[in-house]
């Protein structure tokens, strides 16, 4: 059993003295685990950084075995973002969400393609893409929820069926609610940021915070809660960073905010 395909490195854990247990995501084969012999060596470690795009070669004697994996670097996203705390936190969050929520060996090409595009885009122009990339990250989380079977219904108001003035989302059903029909439940609803309805809108730090709270609610309850897992620590750190930005009204993020 073997395959070769473009893959994103989602995580890598040292195993023994020189090997790594790695998780990669491909468009055709989905999430795969494998043992990278020599992955912890000086030559191998740079390949297996989360967010890197590689050409992966996986093989095993039997289909249900862990298998061995080799990688050839295509694009080193992680190394390009070491001096950009917010963008590095975005990369870490997206990789951790995909790694922790997607079922193993089940293809989700839409998730892979958009994640590949986002990581390449952010890493090639980390300064110029900051605002647009944060909105795109939240949209990718909406895509991830949909692929997992927990899609949000943001096309029309759950009460009236109309598509105008949608400003809220029900935390129970995931359906949009117009401001006119929020009524007495307004305090219980989740704010719906405009950039989730308008692809040309990049949003503000406060709207990014609202977007992350919205998707985070459903990721925590459905994608991770059903597996009895918490949201990944990387996703929590990103939320904290964006919340600070919204509170301060300043898009600059000090480097010490990212571990």
TrEMBL record:
UniProt name for this protein: DNA repair protein RecO
Keywords in alphabetical order: DNA damage, DNA recombination, DNA repair
Record gene name: recO
One Pfam family here: RecO_N
Top-level taxon: Bacteria
Chain ranges of the DNA replication/recombination mediator RecO N-terminal domain: 1-74
Functional summary from the UniProt entry: Involved in DNA repair and RecF pathway recombination.
InterPro entries the record matches: ARFGAP/RecO (IPR037278), DNA_rep/recomb_RecO_N (IPR022572), NA-bd_OB-fold (IPR012340), RecO (IPR003717), RecO_C (IPR042242)
